[in-house]
Design a protein that fits this description.
Length: 270
């Protein structure tokens, strides 16, 4: 199972990694999150952890019945936001015998505290804004969205963080797809801001592989979650030398490093 990044869809990096693993002989599945991509659900771009987590459970249910699949040897890979949701799923879902993440992004922590803890001072203000948005939505009013609907080349160039500058380039320029978006409903923030991928990491008792680029400005989230996985059967932090967060999605030399490590990990543990 491949869980895609926030804003991502199955035709982008999730599909690339699924294809590379399939070429090595694994049966893989990548699916769009509910309310996103080509999946159903209204209002569009609802982005709640409970939905993303249920998507991964659902992929496990589906692939377990697929011809040729050994239902007792399921592995999972979560990329970016999908990595955070994968960690949460693996805490309880023990059909997954090997758990891996790439460039893990803790959606709850970032929506709550801001990227690199830059918005801690405005948490209550933003919770009030999300509360008001849900109230308006429930009353049949206009659905409000957070995120970025479109962006200019100049705005991309002036974005200071690698994650967002390269993310805008990836999602809006080089790997753009009509089903992919940086938007999510403002009301989703109520659920996101009160959730955290890195709590209860001690419940993961499966083998755990977490991968992140050495130049990734999101690596602090992988480090934090990894340190809390105190009961994993085995665990390894694999650093992809030279890679940033977004480069691990597509750049051939970094994708190859990650895939080779995944093949080693899954061969040992599945």
């Amino acid at each position: 199972m491949i869980a895609h990044p926030n804003g991502g869809i199955k035709e982008q990096t999730a599909g690339l990694y699924a294809q590379r693993l399939a070429e090595a002989g694994y049966i893989t599945i990548a699916a769009d999150a509910a309310y996103q991509g080509a999946s159903g659900g209204e209002p569009r771009h609802t982005d709640k952890p409970v939905n993303r987590i249920e998507d991964i459970h659902g992929m496990a249910d589906y692939i377990s019945r697929y011809p040729g699949v050994d239902a007792n040897s399921l592995g999972v890979l979560g990329i970016c936001g999908g990595g955070g949701y994968t960690l949460k799923v693996a805490q309880g879902h023990k059909r997954f015998k090997a758990v891996a993440t790439l460039s893990m992004f803790n959606s709850g922590e970032v929506r709550r505290n801001g990227f690199q803890n830059s918005q801690v001072a405005t948490i209550q203000e933003r919770l009030k804004k999300a509360t008001d948005a849900r109230k308006q939505q429930a009353a049949g009013g206009k659905i409000l969205y957070a995120g970025v609907a479109s962006i200019t080349d100049e705005e991309i160039a002036n974005t200071s963080t690698d994650l967002y500058r390269e993310g805008y380039e990836y999602y809006y320029r080089t790997h753009a797809h009509p089903n992919s978006t940086f938007l999510y409903t403002m009301s989703s923030m109520l659920d996101l801001m009160t959730w955290d991928a890195a709590t209860n990491m001690d419940l993961i008792n499966q083998p755990l592989l977490m991968m992140a680029g050495s130049k990734s400005d999101t690596k602090y989230m992988t480090d934090e979650a990894f340190s809390r996985a105190t009961n994993a059967k085995s665990k390894e932090l694999f650093v992809i030398d030279g890679a940033t967060h977004i480069q691990s999605y597509w750049k051939p030399q970094y994708v190859s490093q990650a895939v080779n490590k995944l093949l080693e990990f899954y061969k040992t543990n599945l």
